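Check this:
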Amino acid sequence: MDNFYTEIPELRYHLNNPLMERICELKERNYRDKDEYDYAPQDYADAIDSYDKVLEITGEITGEIIAPNAEGVDEEGPHCANGRVEYASGTKQNLDAMVKAGLNGMTMPRRFGGLNFPITPYTMCAEIVAAADAGFGNIWSLQDCIETLYEFGNEDQHSRFIPRICAGETMSMDLTEPDAGSDLQSVMLKATYDEANQCWRLNGVKRFITNGDADLHLVLARSEEGTRDGRGLSMFIYDKRDGGVNVRRIENKLGIHGSPTCELVYKNARAELCGDRKLGLIKYVMALMNGARLGIAAQSVGLSQAAYNEALAYAKDRKQFGKAIIEFPAVADMLSTIKAKLDAGRALLYQTARYVDIYKALDDIARERKLTPEERQEQKKYAKLADSFTPLAKGMNSEYANQNAYDCIQVHGGSGFMLEYACQRIYRDARITSIYEGTTQLQVVAAIRYVTNGSYLATLRDYEQTVCSDEMKPLLERVKAMTDKFEACTNLVKEAADQELHDLMARRLYEMAAVCVMSHLIIQDATRAPELFAQSAKVYVNLAEAEVEKHNAFITRFQADDLACYRK
């Protein structure tokens, strides 16, 4: 593939969504930068044209540099020597190309050297990069950690750190420890205040840190002596220039080999507080993780796109029994299933990104002036939608990436098990997506309250009022019936008033909600662009209907006595 953007028309379709006009208006503050910066857009059309051009540049670099380097990077990987990380040679080339193209600090304001992009086109860039090399995507896309520093840091920190990221320096978020994985309340890395030097000092170990030898780190540490829960944790900024942190080792992983996953040793490392004490986990990590989860959703969609590309190309080229294997129904079924999950998952990803864009922009405006009552209502609406959609986008797309990579290998047959085919790398890289930045099980925990409080159901009923084409109307009626079953199953579980039953059924209710949402979104897309999405809409609704039927049968037929079978 020569250009990973222009050759995927679905991306340009999502860039031109009607909601983007409101997003641009908010992000650009009615285009006030046009008189100060010659590269700032004059109006909405100019803004979209700017995003399109940058996406095209990203797609070109991805096609010409990152993708050709991917296999070499996977084989070579990063190295650790004298407490420092040395990237693979291909990774260095990739970073150099992205920095020279100015593709860093993309969402940051222009006064810091950023492009002032909304989250949505930036997320598209992350998807494009991940489609070529998910490991490199981890390194490059961690620039979005700067969003948290921008949101919660002070003006002095903004002026010192944000321009460095916009100039191409790297970031990491140092959260996990040997005894604190998903349970971040157990973080024990110690932060103590050094009165003599007027700074904080960090001591302890962090584990499984992506891009752990980055230039700037956001670090979760225990600042309140004697505490053992989340209320004793604060967020800190560590600058690699100050020293005090060494890489003990780089983990030997199944996939994403280009991305160094490090164990870090903090020894009296100088750091500074980001935001207020005691809010590290309660407030700042939650914001950081929501951004990271959207990033993994984008990475997952990129991997699904890569799996589809490889499977389709192989199926067209490989001949058996005198014809290309794409002509066999069994292979065609796998390909159409991969594409349908890709299109539905991508629709969910960018719907989520657009929701995030609106509430984030309004949050930023609120730091400059008081919001109007209408803006406050808009901010509240989209913050809730973003919070409810993010665990769906991360959880479902990561599961789809794994399923699609599996099917990609199956299309390749025995060749898919051979290391010279890219599908095996895609398969290995995809596996982590349903684990890091919150497992799928934790996405269910994050989402289930929106099942039980009726938020997803309300959104689905709103979607039912959206105008669709005559071709899509039969599918819409089927999705309405699916939603009825989701509502009935939700009520059945709630009425049982049994927490154990509630926990057991949560994943099933989550998936019912998610496939109903994605069915609506793909129908909306097929209405606006049938040439791109009509086939996927039909295939996906078939798949979704089967999933809903499966979960409906399980929940409605489940007996109280059956709970004993699930206790271990």
